[in-house]
Every structure is written in C-alpha cells, then in structure tokens.
C-alpha cells in the first residue's frame, strides 16, 4: 500500500434553510463493506490516538465536530491530513501507519471499519510495521 491510496473523500451535502445533511451509502461513498463503527471523543489535551496500522483492515475516519490531524506513513513516505469537515472522510487502507493528534476542543470523530474488532489485526510496534511493509512489497 502507498499513501496514494489514502483518499480524502467528499460526501454528498444537502443544504437548505434548516441546516445541512450529509449521508453515506455503503458501496457508494465508502469503498469497503462496513462491519464496525465507533467514535472517539473527550481526548485529553496534548494526547494522541491511533499510532498503529492494520494487516488487512480498511478504515474511514470522519470528523463530526472539531478537528484533528491524521499523520499517515506507508513506510517510505509520510504526510499529514487535517480533518475538520463533517462532509469529508479519510480512507486509510491496510498497512498504513496512522496516528491522530492536534485535537481541537470538543472533537468527535467516527471510524468506519471493514471488520469487527480483532486484536491480532493491529500492528502496534513501528519496527514490526516497517517489516510488514517490506514483506508485502
């Protein structure tokens, strides 16, 4: 996998005098079947989240309120993506190291995942991640 496969996806927006509505339809805006949804909030100031990769799991991160920075790493290059619009999602494919930080106050972000929670799907050690990336090249 490479950072080129990490895509910021714009979701449809419907706006009228009552406000805005954004929707997701499986197999349209989300490029994988969603089997788990969770959301993260109340991250203490100065703390981060993530700092791991997955062997086979796809994720879509959507910032519902506030903002955060997602640091992406494919073992060869790195880039940072700011998430602060509820009509955008960041697709993170397998074998991409992702870490979140720089949370604005009251940030809430949701994660759509392609599988149920399985601890063995995580790569928590950065050196093990680099080895995994090398073996899949």
TrEMBL record:
Cited Pfam families: FdtA (PF05523)
Coiled-coil annotated residue ranges, if any: none
Annotated InterPro entries: QdtA_cupin_dom, RmlC-like_jellyroll, RmlC_Cupin_sf
Top-level lineage group: Bacteria
Domain Sugar 3,4-ketoisomerase QdtA cupin: 5-133
Protein name: Sugar 3,4-ketoisomerase QdtA cupin domain-containing protein
Biological classification of the source: Bacteria, Pseudomonadati, Acidobacteriota, Holophagae, Holophagales
């Amino acid at each position: 996998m490479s950072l080129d496969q990490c895509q910021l996806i714009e979701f449809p927006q419907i706006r009228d005098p009552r406000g805005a509505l954004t929707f997701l339809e499986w197999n349209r805006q989300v490029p994988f079947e969603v089997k788990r949804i969770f959301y993260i909030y109340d991250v203490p100031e100065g703390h981060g989240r993530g700092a791991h990769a997955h062997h086979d799991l796809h994720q879509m991160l959507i910032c519902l309120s506030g903002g955060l920075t997602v640091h992406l790493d494919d073992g060869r290059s790195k880039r940072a993506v700011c998430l602060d619009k509820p009509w955008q999602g960041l697709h993170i494919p397998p074998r991409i190291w992702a870490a979140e930080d720089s949370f604005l106050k009251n940030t809430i972000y949701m994660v759509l995942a392609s599988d149920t929670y399985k601890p063995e799907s995580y790569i928590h050690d950065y050196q093990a991640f680099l080895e995994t990336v090398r073996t899949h090249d």
